[in-house]
Amino acid sequence: MSDQQDPMTPARPEAARFDEQQNAWVLTRYRDVWAALREPCLWPVNGKREIQPDSREADGRLPQRGPMLEAIAGARIAEWQPRVEEITRDAISALPVGRAVDLLSEFTLPWGLSLAMLVSGADTRDRNRLSELGTRVFAATGAEKKDAALKADAAAATAELERRFEGGPIPMGEPAFVALSQTLPRLLANAWLALVRNPAEFAKLRAEPGLLPGAVDELLRYAGIVRRVYRRAAADVDLGTVRIAQGELATLMLASANRDPEAFSDPDRLDVTRSASHHVALGTGRNSCVGAMLIRMATSVATGALTARFAGVDFEGVGEWRTGSGFYFPGSVIVHLR
Ligand code: HEM
Q1: pTM of the complete model
Q2: 296, 212 in Cβ contact below 8 A?
Q3: Is it true that the peptide bond before 10 is cis, omega within 30 degrees of 0?
Q4: Could you give the domains of the chain?
Q5: How far is the CA of 90 from the centre of ligand 1 (A)?
Q6: For 246-292, how does the pLDDT look when each residue is reduced to its tens digit (9 = 90+)?
Q7: Is the pLDDT of residue 5 over 50?
Q8: Ligand 1 centroid from CA 81, angstroms
């Protein structure tokens, strides 16, 4: 399969342009996307692509950002790491050899659920119910057509999760639980898909585990699942190569920026030895992902455990790609472990 046909390869970076159909500026070059993410007058939007000034600080920051970072970054990460290693070891050693395995349903999803239970301090007796609720919240994500019944069911499941996590140890407990138990498993599956399709890179990590956690940034750059995020201009904005007028919308193509040859040499090649920490797979600046440290730790632990346990992974196929939202991920990743 050539890179051009590869569904993992996003649109090529090009000069910023106004797309009449989307009624939005489309930014694909690394320098434009990076500048837009860092621009204080470009604000995140809600699902209707509108700015919500009431739910943000005056500078566009999320009010829960500080408390969330306190609850899930720094010392907390170090505290969770031994438990994450234990959860990961158990789950990796349960993976079978000698038959086809779906890395998503048989490893990354149950593993992500364990992680979400740990971080949110949930009662293990609630595991099945919480798993079901998380699955229902995520069911409509990435579907090509928005099914009204699916959306209503997702809203009901979201409301129940919000009630269950209200007053819990993490601010925004519901989105955090869903991100850890649903989004992170898709990211890891996509990252591992990249790795198993590049056996030489898998072998490098197995031979030299010290390449982790740097390799995690390369996996995020190459296989990050957030294709695009949106911004609306709260005032006229000059990004150097483009002027976005107050009120206009901009689509920031994170995945394209991460494959820009101006920022990453030979960008369509997965290279676990490259220095890629300036990627934008988790955003950058005041609205960047607050789960970034946790994601890096968990991805590093899991990838290290996979490459240590198995000499190689033979790629068999992927299920249908889900591309109907800003996310982009395969429905399954089928492999043979050896
Ligand atoms: C592995 C899966 C995840 C991916 C790929 C991801 C990706 C991202 C990206 C790209 C952004 C920036 C959005 C923008 O600039 O508009 C973001 C923001 C955010 N992420 Fe994540 N994220 C993940 C997991 C998590 C987790 C586990 C949490 C919490 C525990 C989390 C919490 C947040 C929050 C609260 C924001 C908004 C930050 C703000 O506006 O200040 N994410 N995420």
Answers
A1: 0.95
A2: no
A3: no
A4: 21-44+61-337 (1.10.630.10)
A5: 27
A6: 999 999 999 999 999 999 999 999 999 999 999 999 999 999 999 99
A7: no
A8: 20
